[in-house]
Amino acid sequence: xxxxxxxxxxxxxxxxxxxxxxxxxxxxxxxxxxxxxxxxxxxxxxxxxxxxxxxxxxxxxxxxxxxxxxxxxxxxxxxxxxxxxxxxxxxxxxxxxxxxxxxxxxxxxxxxxxxxxxxxxxxxxxxxxxxxxxxxxxxxxxxxxxxxxxxxxxxxxxxxxxxxxxxxxxxxxxxxxxxxxxxxxxxxxxxxxxxxxxxxxxxxxxxxxxxxxxxxxxxxxxxxxxxxxxxxxxxxxxxxxxxxxxxxxxxxxxxxxxxxxxxxxxxxxxxxxxxxxxxxxxxxxxxxxxxxx
Length: 293
Prior knowledge:
By secondary structure, the protein is of the alpha+beta class. Helices cover 49% and strands 18% of the residues. Strand 2 and strand 3 form a beta hairpin.
C-alpha cells in the first residue's frame, strides 16, 4: 500500500509570489514606456530589460511550482520523490539509512543560495559529496543515504515518515532494482512526442516568424507609419509588434511548461495557449500592415 507525504508549506513561499508579481508589473511598465513617443529613443533599452526579466521570473516560478508539487511516496518496493518534472526512485533495499538532521553531532551545512522556503539545490557537502535537497523546512529535514547517494527531504511529520520508511524497508523483498531518476530532458522529449503540442508549437512559431518578416519589411520600406494613437511615428517603431509577439510566445511556452508539470492538469489548456498565441501573432501582423499601408 502506497503512503504519500508532503512537506510543510512555508509562509516564506508567499514572498516568491510577491517577487513574481513585481517582475510582471515591472515588465509591463517597461513595455508601456517603450510605446510613449516622448521616450521612443529609449524603447529598445526598455524592451530589452523587459525581456531579461523573463529569466528570473521563470526561475522563481519554476522553484515555486516545484515546491507546491513535492511528494514523498513510500510503497512496498521504493521511496519515490516527485518535484515538478523531476522524479527520483530509491529502492527500499538500496537505502542504507535515514536520520533526522538533529540526530547528527555536527550541524549539516545547508545551501546558502536559495529562494524563500525552497531548497532544491544539488549541494556539495564535505565528506558526502553532492547531496540532493528536495525540502522546504530546515527543522524537518531528513538525510537519506541510498547506494552512495545522499538526499535530503522534509516531510510534514518526520517521525511518521521515518517509522513508515523503516517498516517498509524491513518488509521489502530482495530486488535487483536500481535508483532511477527523471529530469527536465526526459520531460521535454516526452512532451515533444505529443502530436497536438508539436503541431501548435510549430504553427505559433511560424506565425511569429511571419510577424517579424512583415514588420521588418514595412519598417524598411516606409519612413513613417500611423501608430495606434493616430500619430505619425518612425516606421522602425513597428518592430515593437513582433517584440511584443515574441514576449507573448515566450510567456505561453512558460505557462505551458508549468501546466504540463502538473499531472492532474489537462493538456487542452496547453493547446489553447499555443492557439491563442498564434492568433495574437496573426492580429499583430494585420495591425502592422494596416498601420503601414
